[in-house]
Q: What sequence folds into this?
């Protein structure tokens, strides 16, 4: 498995080696030992989610309060999505920076998103199936969002695809308002939480 950091610190892309033959293909899309070496601690897997999305569907930008927030290991089992990671940690040297990765059923990459980062994706195909391994369970009172169409944020969604948003995501504040309202995690509390995870390991 090949690993590369994203432009947003504390996020990585994992590209598995695939073994095709006359029967089909085999690959390891998740390796706990590889992930642990990269992030410096074991990822607790508390919940596994799966979404099926029609073309144009945007889910995100989502994040949760730190601690414990929610780390995610995201994989597209069918179809294709444009996956987006955003540094929303107030005080981070790269606050507002984002990076995108195409996740699909060809290269079969996965993305790891550390606690405190924002995450979103757009389905590029109909019936795009995305699986998320999550470090904590869903806690609605701790979940927040930033509007994925916020012009200041400037996510480069494909212009030839009409975006489809949930009412909740469409009503989410822009990045600047979320920061002004105190909704975003701070860089300091995220670093402290990462250090606590490493010390436990």
A:
């Amino acid at each position: 498995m090949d690993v590369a950091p994203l432009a947003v610190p504390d996020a990585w892309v994992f590209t598995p080696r695939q073994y095709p033959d006359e029967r089909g293909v085999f690959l390891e899309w998740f390796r706990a030992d590889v992930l642990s070496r990269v992030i410096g601690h074991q990822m607790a897997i508390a919940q596994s989610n799966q979404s099926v999305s029609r073309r144009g569907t945007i889910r995100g930008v989502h994040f949760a309060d730190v601690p414990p927030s929610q780390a995610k290991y995201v994989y597209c089992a069918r179809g294709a999505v444009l996956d987006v990671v955003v540094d929303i940690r107030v005080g981070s040297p790269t606050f507002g920076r984002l990076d995108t990765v195409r996740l699909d059923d060809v290269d079969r990459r996965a993305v790891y998103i550390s606690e405190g980062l924002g995450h979103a994706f757009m389905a590029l195909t109909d019936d795009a199936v995305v699986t998320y391994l999550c470090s904590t369970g869903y806690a609605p009172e701790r979940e927040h969002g930033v509007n994925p169409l916020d012009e200041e944020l400037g996510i480069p969604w494909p212009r030839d695809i009409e975006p489809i948003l949930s009412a909740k995501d469409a009503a989410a504040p822009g990045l600047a308002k979320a920061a002004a309202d105190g909704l975003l995690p701070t860089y300091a509390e995220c670093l402290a939480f990462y250090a606590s995870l490493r010390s436990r390991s």
Remarks:
- The longest helix spans residues 187-200.
- The helical segments are 32-39, 167-170, 175-180, 187-200.
- The longest strand covers residues 47-53.
- The chain is about 15% helix and 35% strand.
